[in-house]
Write a structure and sequence with these properties.
Distance between the termini: 30 Å
Order of helices and strands: EHEEEEHEEE
Number of strands: 8
Shape: globular
Strand order of the largest sheet: 1-4-3-2
Largest sheet: 4 strands, mixed
Number of helices: 2
């Protein structure tokens, strides 16, 4: 049986350039962008984690980002990123001046980690099982 590889969330964003800038603050690199002069699609990544970013709206801004937590309070995250050392990553992100949506802690569901929201409200949880 074929092994599966990493999965990449696909986020609708308001401004691809602004979204790229946010993920670069997380230590992600720009892996693909099109078109270069007025981008509407990009892929950013760090290690085996990738996020697809796309602006699909027209001038009337009818297609907007819709993070999970805006749809239901029991769906607080849009992506779970497994990290073996969430404490170390939290220190790195703190040194980069990032603001946490949820501080580093042990959760009732057996996870340790923290959450960060991007410019469009998508929430990424960085953590691992306790």
């Amino acid at each position: 049986m074929e092994a599966l590889g990493p999965i990449s969330p696909f986020f609708i964003v308001n401004d691809v350039r602004r979204a790229i800038g946010f993920y670069e603050r997380l230590g992600f690199e720009l892996r693909f962008v099109t078109p270069a002069d007025e981008p509407f699609f990009a892929i950013v990544g760090r290690d085996s984690v990738q996020v697809y970013l796309k602006d699909v709206s027209d001038e009337s801004r009818t297609v907007l980002p819709q993070p999970n937590h805006t749809r239901h309070e029991w769906a607080p995250w849009d992506a779970f990123v497994f990290v073996p050392d969430p404490d170390g990553l939290a220190k790195e992100f703190t040194s980069r001046g990032l603001v946490f949506k949820q501080d580093l802690r042990d959760l009732d569901d057996g996870l340790r980690g923290f959450a960060i929201a991007d410019n469009d409200g998508y929430v990424l949880f960085f953590g691992r099982p306790i």
